[in-house]
Amino acid sequence: MSLENFASSRALSLGVELELQLVSTHDYDLVSSAEDLLREMARKDVPGEVKPEMTCSMIEVSTGICSDYARVAEELEALRAALTDAARKLNIGICGGGTHAFQDWGERRIFDKPRFHYLSDLYGYLAKQFTVFGQHVHIGCPGPDAALYLLHGMSRYIPHLIALSASSPYVQGKDTGFQSARLNSVFAFPLSGRAPFVETWQDFEAYFNKMSDTGVVQSMKDFYWDIRPKPEYGTIEVRVMDTPLTVGRAAAIAAYIQAIARYLMIERPIRLSEDDYLVYTFNRFQACRFGFSGNYVHPETHEHRSVAEEIEDSFARIEQHAIELGCDGPLGELLRQVREGRNDAAWLRERHTGGESLPEVVMDQCGRWMGGDAM
Amino acid sequence: MDLLIWPDWPLALGALFPVAIALVLTALVGEAGGRFGLPRVSGYALAGLVLGPLVLGWFDANDLAGHRLVIDFTIALVLFELGIRLDLRWLAANRWVVATSAGEIALTFALTFGTLWAVGTGTGIALAVAAIAVGTSPVILMHVTNELRAAGQTTDRLLALCALNAAVSVILLKLLVGALHGVHSGWQLALLHPLYLLIGSVLAGAIIAAAYLGLRKLVDPATEQGLAAMIALLLAAIALLSALRLPTVLAPLFAGALIKWRDPRPHLWPQQFGSLGGVLVIVTFMLAGAAVTAGELFAGAGVGILAIVARAAGKLGGAVAFGPPSGLDLRKSVALGLALLPLSALALLQAVDVRLLYPEFGDRLMPIVIAMTVVLGLLGPIATRRALIHVRETRRGETS
């Protein structure tokens, strides 16, 4: 199967996908209620889409194509309100967070859909262990070569995005010590990691065809890269974020990505090089493990600084673009939290170390997401 | 030689030894059933029947009366746990669940009464059987759902409906039987007694709930001292309720629901209590078979089977009629109706209590109830289990 053509899309248009957890309000463990919730949602008039995901205790919601932060925030808020309404009727909780704190992966069920069964047969227990919850952000690109420039340029900001969104310190009932343990589940897949360093769509097609000839992949869907081109939409898709605990934070993170994209596309500040990726996995690990206080090695200068300092600098670089895009407000709030060292992982740990049991923490997570709390 | 230091021959083992053997046999039959993919409670119920007057005769009605406290305590404990699963906020948010409950209760009562009345059991017996038929066995449902770690829309509704129909069944039977025997001479009493049962149970439930929430501040219910405190609380409640002539099953149920209402945090201590509760359930089924004699079973079989069919139609009809607007699809609605079928110790004890007060009426009621509980105690759990597996709401064990 060959790669489809890169569709045209409006530059810097924005789409957000959130994978969400469905939990029982009795024990706050994951519960297989996706089918019932989707049936309820089918009757409601909401923007975007609500779709099944790999296992029956998760769903994915997505906005339509949005032009700016305000629109994303509005659509996510409408989806949240409708989902909350349906969830109350069905007596289930919905929450954000990159992992469920104490679920037993062996108890998960694969959603009844051919693609999910295919993946489950192929990957075996990895498919069930993949009950993790991420935020994906699509950015519209004027053309395929611009998309590849944006993809490689955005790669430098992966640690920033991980630290800002991290919300998965607990896995299988234990504190992993990581701020985003979710990405460790993603690494287990053979085709995860980063896209190959190619700068033109022609070269990318050649790479895809070679991979396709090996029989290893059939379509772009088989790549689980941190950022991947999505030719059918004409976008690049940033996939490293944990689902934040509130839709407000999800919208703010999408706005941050949009502002970085505008900065990269208009200023073209980086000369791309394969060597940029020498520090990539190190930086990524540091952000997953330590969040804001992780170590960030600059790909060009090789200077070591904290992720928080890097984020602070990035805000200065993109400020003008944020103002142009009308998202300086929410980005200001994000920056304030970076300075205070606050993210969702810290919020979760505070609760558990403060004496709450993990089921109680999940209950509070539901309260935050369903209540539409501020980020 | 001092004879007292040597054992007598044959050995004088006393009453304890047969009880121990019976207990292990019951557990083993349950285990054997589990190996064949049957719910363990079905095995326990079968063992109870074999040990009782029906086959071996190790236990009889006197044993049942003598160990009544154990069974009452087990049922109270199960209903307390069931009450905690009954989330009143949900019932307020989704009125269709309440409608489903009202629908299945009304339909079950009407169909069972109509069928029995039509075959000429007499109005009194038809009403009493119908009232008992309204309930679903909480012990069986909790056991089967725990065994499968079931969770989901069908399971949530199943447990909520069971809590509600068990409560209605207990109240209904007291009222009807009382009314039939002229206990309520004059309308004041006819009005006061139901009010006393209901308000008294709610108040008692509120006291238990307050005591539980107070205790929870002092001890962690997941620890052994916490468990001891909770058991003591329920024992005290049973003593108090008996003294007040209130049913021992309603107040624990109300208490559980009030606790969840006041404090929506997850209340998971019953899972810690799992092993103790499991043993109590085995003992309950082992003893429940003592009420079943061959004569009564066969005397009631014909009418009992008619009542079972009518009751099943009522449960299924109510679930299918009101399930879809409450957010279930048709497949899950049918599963819900079938899963509601079990009938067991609680129904049997209701009939036993009626017979204590009104022996002549009880003698006519008992055979029908015995036939129903024998069939639905054995087959009901299988229906529940298959239904939950079919709708893929199990987190453990067999998959469909």
What does the model show?
The complex is a heterodimer of chains A (375) and B (400). Chain A has 375 residues and is of the alpha+beta class. Chain A contains 14 helices and 13 strands. Chain A has helices at residues 34-42, 69-90, 114-123, 125-129, 144-155, 158-165, 182-187, 201-214, 247-267, 280-290, 307-325, 328-340, 344-353, 358-370, and strands at residues 14-24, 49-52, 58-62, 92-95, 134-140, 170-171, 174-175, 192-193, 224-225, 227-230, 235-242, 295-297, 304-306. In chain A, strands 1, 2, 3, 4, 5, 10 and 11 form a seven-stranded antiparallel sheet that branches. Chain A has a two-stranded antiparallel ribbon with strand order 6-7. In chain A, helix 2 (69-90) runs antiparallel to helix 9. The longest helix of chain A has 22 residues, at 69-90. Chain B has 400 residues and is an all-alpha fold. Chain B has a single domain (68-286, 297-390), classed as Na+/H+ antiporter like fold (Up-down Bundle), CATH 1.20.1530. Chain B has 19 helices and no strands. In chain B, helix 1 packs antiparallel against helix 2 and helix 7 packs antiparallel against helix 9. The interface between A and B is medium-sized, with 25 and 24 residues.
